[in-house]
Amino acid sequence: MNTLLEPGMLVRHPGRPDWGTGQVQSNVKGRITVNFEHAGKVLIDGSRVQLQLVPDLPK
Question: What are the CA-CA distances from residue 28 to residues 10, 20, 48, 57 (Å)?
Fold first, then answer.
């Protein structure tokens, strides 16, 4: 799943729900930079954490 993440996609960290929703900034060789609502910019090791995709809300 993490390999499919692209900049702009919204995700959640399964072990840190307090961080809120995050927007993917980059995904390079399994290192995913995400800007979370309540934690700021965080570098995630995609081999250790499977981020959860937040589905788009209907418009």
Answer: 17, 22, 15, 27
Q: With H, G, I as helix, E, B as strand and everything else as coil, classify residue 45.
A: strand
Burial of residue 6 (number of CB atoms within 10 Å: 0-12, 13-18, 19+):
exposed
CB-CB contact of 44 with 26 (8 Å): no
- The structure's pTM equals 0.91
Residue in 4, 35, 42 with CA at minimum distance from that of residue 21? 35
pLDDT band at 59 (very low <50, low <70, confident <90, very high): low
Per-residue model confidence as pLDDT tens digits over 11-55: 999 999 999 999 999 999 999 999 999 999 999 999 999 999 998
